[in-house]
Design brief:
Purple Acid Phosphatase, chain A, domain 2, five-stranded mixed sheet, 10 strands, alpha/beta
Length: about 240
């Protein structure tokens, strides 16, 4: 049976992505859902995008947009580099585009422009970079930036009493909508954990690849997961976003 695999935040770590695919023994029938933040941090952001463009011709792929991808797209579109972005991995991304032609950059910009903010599947699972704030679901979100900036969904899941069930009137309405939710954006290494975290039926697969963590890919059905080595070990001499 083809697998459905969700991949956490990459942040320019192409070597980690290639390592994870070797370890999970990627098959061309596997469906891949990338949760966003392909760039910013390690030195191969532009090459990550090249790799994903090629991968999308080989496997069924969905590429969700993250906040760092939105920053990068703005820069590729001619905007002045946002200072916050530059200081949070953008500098490495800008450097990674050295030698790229305007035509190549335009291809990448078009790729970013095609990325959805979220997707759902037939099993009523949601895949989104960060979260949403509306109690009625992402389709009712008033501020689209929440799709790749919101942390309250994850914090709500963490803070909700694990003994509560969906039948309880105290159970948060945002957590009742979907069978499962898969997110990135908030590194699990913030909690000194470098494997995927679960809170109720929300799964966080950003295991800190931008920092001192690992890149993770998870089988959505079985919850089996595969990880790279700590990413900093794959990029000796670099700091990623560890500032």
């Amino acid at each position: 049976m083809p697998r459905k695999i969700v991949i956490g935040d990459i942040h320019g770590a192409l070597r980690a992505l290639e390592q994870v695919f070797i370890r999970l023994k990627l098959d061309q029938k596997d469906e891949l859902i990338f949760i966003g933040d392909y760039v910013d941090g390690w030195s191969e952001s532009a090459r990550v995008i090249d790799y994903l463009l090629h991968l999308g011709k080989m496997n069924p792929c969905i590429f969700i947009k993250g906040n760092h991808d939105a920053w990068c797209a703005d820069w590729l579109n001619g905007a002045q580099a946002d200072t916050e972005w530059v200081n949070h991995g953008g500098r490495e991304t800008i450097n990674s585009y050295s030698g790229y032609s305007d035509e190549q950059k335009e291809i990448h910009l078009s790729f970013f422009g095609r990325m959805p903010y979220y997707v759902t599947d037939r099993e009523n699972r949601l895949f989104i970079h960060a979260g949403f704030s509306s109690i009625h679901g992402p389709g009712y979100e008033h501020f689209e930036d929440n799709f790749f900036w919101d942390r309250t969904l994850w914090e709500l899941a963490l803070a909700t009493n694990p003994e509560l069930t969906k039948e309880s009137k105290f159970y948060p309405k945002r957590l009742k909508i979907f069978k499962e939710i898969f997110i990135g954006h908030t590194p699990t290494t913030n909690y000194e954990i470098d494997i995927p975290m679960q809170a109720h039926h929300v799964w966080n697969v950003d295991t800190g690849a931008a920092f001192h963590g690992r890149l993770t890919a998870m089988d959505v059905q079985t919850k089996m997961y595969w990880q790279s080595d700590p990413v900093w070990q794959l990029y000796p001499g670099e700091t990623g976003r560890n500032r």
